[in-house]
Amino acid sequence: MANDASAVSDALSPAVSNNSLVDPFTPPADSALWRKNFLLGAATASYQIEGAVNEDGRLPSIWDTFSATPGKVLAGDTGAIACDHYHRWEADVELLVSLGLEGYRLSIAWPRVMDAAGAPNRKGLDFYRRLLNRLKEKGVTTFVTLYHWDLPQHLEDRGGWLNRDTAYRFADYADLMSRELAGTVDAWATLNEPWCSAYLGYGNGHHAPGLANDRFATQAMHHLLLAHGLAIPVLHANDPVSQKGIVANVGRGTANSDSAADQRAAHLFEVQHNAWILDPLLKGAYPQELFELWPGTEPLVLDGDMRIISAPLDFLGVNYYFRTNVASDGAHGFRDVPLEGVERTQMGWEVYPDGLRDLLTGFNNTYQNLPPVYITENGMASDDQVIDGRVDDTQRISFLKRHLAAVDQAIKAGVDIRGYFLWSLMDNFEWAFGYERRFGVVHVDYSTQKRTIKRSAEWVAKFLKERKARV
Ligand code: FCB
Question: In the chain, how many domains are there?
Answer without folding.
Answer: 1
